[in-house]
Amino acid sequence: MARDEHNGFGDWGGYFEAKKSKLEEQFTAASDPFRKSNLFAGISIFVNGRTNPSADELKRIMMVHGGTYHHYERPHTTFTIATNVPDVKVRNMNLSKFISAQWVVDCLENEKILDYKPYLLYTNQKTSQPRLNFGKSKNDSNNDSKLEEPPLKKSDSNLDGILKELQQAVAASPEKEAKITNLSTTSNPSHNAMSAVDPGFLTEFYKNSRLHHIATLGAGFKQYVCELRQAQGSKGFPKRQDLKTLTKSTQIGSVRYVMHIDMDCFFVSVGLRSHPELRGLPVAVTHSKGGSAATDVPVHPQADREAELELFAQRFEHHLHDNIKADKVRSGFDKKMSLSEIASCSYEARKKGIRNGMFVGQALKMCPELKTIPYDFEGYKEVAFTLYNTVSQYTLNIEAVSCDEMFVELTDLVDDLKVDVMAFVGYLRQEVHAKTGCPCSAGVGSNKLLARMATKEAKPNGQYLLDHDQDLLAYMAPTPLESLPGVGSSMSYKLSQVGLSSCGDVQKITLEKLESVLGKKQAQTLYQNCQGVDTRPLNYEQQRKQVSAEANYGIRFSKPIEVENFLRQLGAEVTTRLIDAKRRTKSINLKVMVRAAEAPVETSKFMGHGVCDVINKSSILKHSTDDVNVITSHVLKLMREAHLPPNELRGIGIHLSKLEDVNVVRKENILKKMFVKITEKKKDQTTVEPQEVPATNSKPIPEETKVKPKEKTNVLSMLTAAAGRKSLNEDKVRNEPSRNYDFFGADESSLVSASAGQFDPDILAQLPDDIRREVLTFKEEYLRISENDETGRSPSKKLCTRIPSPPPLALAFSPSSSPLNESDLQPSTSKAAIARLEKRATRKEYELGCRSDQIVSDYIEELPKHIHPALLDYISRPVEEVPCIEEPNFLLQLDYKNLLNEWVTKEEVPAPADVNLMHGQIYKLVKADKMSQIYDVMKYLCRLINSKRSNSCPWHMAYNHLESDIQKKMIELQGYNMHFTETIRCYKCVG
DNA sequence: ATCCTCCCCTAC
DNA sequence: TAAGGTAGGGGAGGAT
């Protein structure tokens, strides 16, 4: 729920569906042959109650003049037209949208959009206290002696009546009026979450963060394109029929057309829909109210703008080629000027030198008449949806770049329909404009780079084709390097230092020379781009590679518990995003901004982070997770070990990387569970007569194929051991107690004080009540057992020699048996830690093949069924500290066929440990690029299974799983799939 | 030579 | 007052 509030993608599909009908309604109007003008383009009205002109008449006016009529009020309805608004209805309404019907009439008469303010039924004064605009009530004099006179127009005869009506209503109920007066400021008293100690802070912050919206909307639309493509099927594009009337292409032969389409100063355009009177003026979207509110801001008495500026300049000395940063240093910190940032500004404002990201105070110095408008995050989302939905009616070959920008591959569409490409682009842009009321620009070229360049030419509100016949070198030559994608202030500075400032400059030098300035890859890309060459294909379905959540604003703590609470919230947040992305993480990184030693304690920007040092610490997991408890406890531990005073924190972030697909993991689990079940059954069969095996394997197990419990655990492992190596399972089990997993980890201090069986109270506190009791019960049980057992210093040993009943959950929480893994407590920069981590990583695959899965499986099976998944996850983790013995890959040995043969022959169903071993060995082969060997192994194995185990679905599944795992790894590591000629032939377990 | 990790840079 | 997020690419430099 909270998630939806800040990124709004939780209900993606639903939102789309709901919008559809409305959009259609809008565009029907747009293509109406009776259309007389586009006067009200982008403006929507809702009529509340009786009006003059009537609702029907207003509807007609809107339709004929390009506007939209809403039959019920929507959050983004531009205006609500009314004469009087009953108090009950006002309660939850945005008072700033209520205007008189006369506005519509007057706009029509003047043939332009007039300032709606004189038509407001209620006005917001700068105190942001809404008040009735008409007349004076008895209470008003207390609040404000200067009451605006109603700016009635002469023609507005009906307003007198409204005025009277309204006054009467108010006079009759002074209480009600008081309610109205308080509405906008107090309707949400909980929204005063000023700093991160406040429980509502994170939500409030994200709700108001432009950068957060830009990022999450962007990610959301990438996902949206994927969803649209996957839902597409063979539906086709009926809307393409409409394009038949367009100019035909005169192009002979096929040419590649890539379109880049981009809304013009997106936030401003959307904002101007509800401030039409500001069109043509310098406008900026910002949190600051502008005017005197931006030039005389209250500054904290202990904030020292000068000192902070000095330090900032010093720290970013090497960044001063970045104009925005340099300007901030030069003039941004002046006295009492607003330090609120400009998210987007109109072209008129840009002409005055104002740029996105600038401080409002600074911008006002350059352009005192600058108008500021507030954010409209819902509006951005809605317009962005409309943009994407409009384009996707014609093609789904879309690469989403951000919420207001995309690449579209038009080659096929142009070929199929034989339309002139720019005729189509014009048609599309017009449709977008009509539906959204916002202008957009589009560029077309033969690759992404050129399409982008063309868009630059096209802006604002235009389109441009970079012709194929054009001399590309000549065209690119005068282009400044900075305007190429990927060249920012830093790189362009670096290049200017060696005398390169335009594409032409780069065209003249050799690639080698450029490589000496930049890295290899960057040099190559830049070199090509300077010649107008760009070989990147469009990326239609983008996979997430990292997920993060951070807040570097409003972070002010005094106690550790506050930090902890915030980290829990942030941990929950980032986990939600991870789960949404259908991924799991193996690497958890904590990022902390700490006040720089010399920086003033109070920042210049209200609640800003000031000048900071950044600290990163990370934790690598052996198995991917999307469990909030696991992620949060790692984060808490990383924070604890950083030993930072809470009051010095200025920013906190959690980054998750090394992501894995959640589906693959699930599949594995299903398989594993199935194996566990089957082995359980088999165990029973040693005492009980043959019985039905689970549904996947409907055939009774023939008596002779049954194996003794010891053998059945891992035949293949044993076979490989018999072939000349030691069984590593035994080794590991004998020598190494289980590691105390971080989930239950504590910092050093608590470790020292902890007695056997204790574990991190953080973690305990996070568990649901029933499970916490469960854990405690197990803990007691464990303690009892270990006390009675002389050799019981190592519970894992005990576990492995013979499984006690109930099984010792202590494996999971006994610090005495295994010292806390030190590497997890080291800063990520510690070389020792890195060394350890790396060792661990290489060991891991090896462990895959040799861990005692049967024991773990048995153990899990005996746990209460409702036990927390995080515990299961932990318990089923491989034991870590294995003496590192280099294991030759048996699949590379000459006799591998014999081994496989024996394995398949001996086992009715494959044992999990053996399957794991296979996975591990195959993985090594993929990594080692031994494709032909993989091919041979798989072909042989598949034939074996088809001939000897045609009735054993567990074998089939094991094989299929192995194959899909290989393909996944191949894509990951090699970038392509393998083609296996043999497939499992089973009619029962297809798919 | 190739990999991995920790950054920095860039974009919106 | 103010809401300074988030994802991806790639270089540097060390480990193997």
From TrEMBL:
<feature type="domain" description="UmuC">
    <location>
        <begin position="258"/>
        <end position="488"/>
    </location>
</feature>
<dbReference type="InterPro" id="IPR012112">
    <property type="entry name" value="REV1"/>
</dbReference>
<dbReference type="InterPro" id="IPR031991">
    <property type="entry name" value="Rev1_C"/>
</dbReference>
<dbReference type="GO" id="GO:0017125">
    <property type="term" value="F:deoxycytidyl transferase activity"/>
</dbReference>
<keyword id="KW-0227">DNA damage</keyword>
<comment type="similarity">
    <text>Belongs to the DNA polymerase type-Y family.</text>
</comment>
<dbReference type="InterPro" id="IPR043128">
    <property type="entry name" value="Rev_trsase/Diguanyl_cyclase"/>
</dbReference>
<keyword id="KW-0548">Nucleotidyltransferase</keyword>
<keyword id="KW-0238">DNA-binding</keyword>
<dbReference type="GO" id="GO:0043150">
    <property type="term" value="P:DNA synthesis involved in double-strand break repair via homologous recombination"/>
</dbReference>
<dbReference type="InterPro" id="IPR017961">
    <property type="entry name" value="DNA_pol_Y-fam_little_finger"/>
</dbReference>
<keyword id="KW-0234">DNA repair</keyword>
<feature type="region of interest" description="Disordered">
    <location>
        <begin position="130"/>
        <end position="157"/>
    </location>
</feature>
<dbReference type="GO" id="GO:0070987">
    <property type="term" value="P:error-free translesion synthesis"/>
</dbReference>
<dbReference type="InterPro" id="IPR025527">
    <property type="entry name" value="HUWE1/Rev1_UBM"/>
</dbReference>
<feature type="region of interest" description="Disordered">
    <location>
        <begin position="173"/>
        <end position="193"/>
    </location>
</feature>
<feature type="domain" description="BRCT">
    <location>
        <begin position="35"/>
        <end position="121"/>
    </location>
</feature>
<dbReference type="Pfam" id="PF14377">
    <property type="entry name" value="UBM"/>
</dbReference>
<dbReference type="InterPro" id="IPR001357">
    <property type="entry name" value="BRCT_dom"/>
</dbReference>
<comment type="function">
    <text>Deoxycytidyl transferase involved in DNA repair. Transfers a dCMP residue from dCTP to the 3'-end of a DNA primer in a template-dependent reaction. May assist in the first step in the bypass of abasic lesions by the insertion of a nucleotide opposite the lesion. Required for normal induction of mutations by physical and chemical agents.</text>
</comment>
<keyword id="KW-0237">DNA synthesis</keyword>
<dbReference type="Pfam" id="PF16727">
    <property type="entry name" value="REV1_C"/>
</dbReference>
<protein>
    <recommendedName>
        <fullName>DNA repair protein REV1</fullName>
        <ecNumber>2.7.7.-</ecNumber>
    </recommendedName>
</protein>
<dbReference type="InterPro" id="IPR001126">
    <property type="entry name" value="UmuC"/>
</dbReference>
<dbReference type="GO" id="GO:0005634">
    <property type="term" value="C:nucleus"/>
</dbReference>
<dbReference type="InterPro" id="IPR036420">
    <property type="entry name" value="BRCT_dom_sf"/>
</dbReference>
<keyword id="KW-0479">Metal-binding</keyword>
<dbReference type="InterPro" id="IPR053848">
    <property type="entry name" value="IMS_HHH_1"/>
</dbReference>
<keyword id="KW-0808">Transferase</keyword>
<dbReference type="Pfam" id="PF16589">
    <property type="entry name" value="BRCT_2"/>
</dbReference>
<dbReference type="GO" id="GO:0010569">
    <property type="term" value="P:regulation of double-strand break repair via homologous recombination"/>
</dbReference>
<dbReference type="Pfam" id="PF00817">
    <property type="entry name" value="IMS"/>
</dbReference>
<feature type="compositionally biased region" description="Polar residues">
    <location>
        <begin position="181"/>
        <end position="193"/>
    </location>
</feature>
<dbReference type="Pfam" id="PF11799">
    <property type="entry name" value="IMS_C"/>
</dbReference>
<feature type="binding site">
    <location>
        <position position="404"/>
    </location>
    <ligand>
        <name>Mg(2+)</name>
    </ligand>
</feature>
<feature type="binding site">
    <location>
        <position position="405"/>
    </location>
    <ligand>
        <name>Mg(2+)</name>
    </ligand>
</feature>
<dbReference type="GO" id="GO:0003887">
    <property type="term" value="F:DNA-directed DNA polymerase activity"/>
</dbReference>
<dbReference type="GO" id="GO:0003684">
    <property type="term" value="F:damaged DNA binding"/>
</dbReference>
<keyword id="KW-0539">Nucleus</keyword>
<feature type="binding site">
    <location>
        <position position="262"/>
    </location>
    <ligand>
        <name>Mg(2+)</name>
    </ligand>
</feature>
<dbReference type="InterPro" id="IPR043502">
    <property type="entry name" value="DNA/RNA_pol_sf"/>
</dbReference>
<dbReference type="GO" id="GO:0042276">
    <property type="term" value="P:error-prone translesion synthesis"/>
</dbReference>
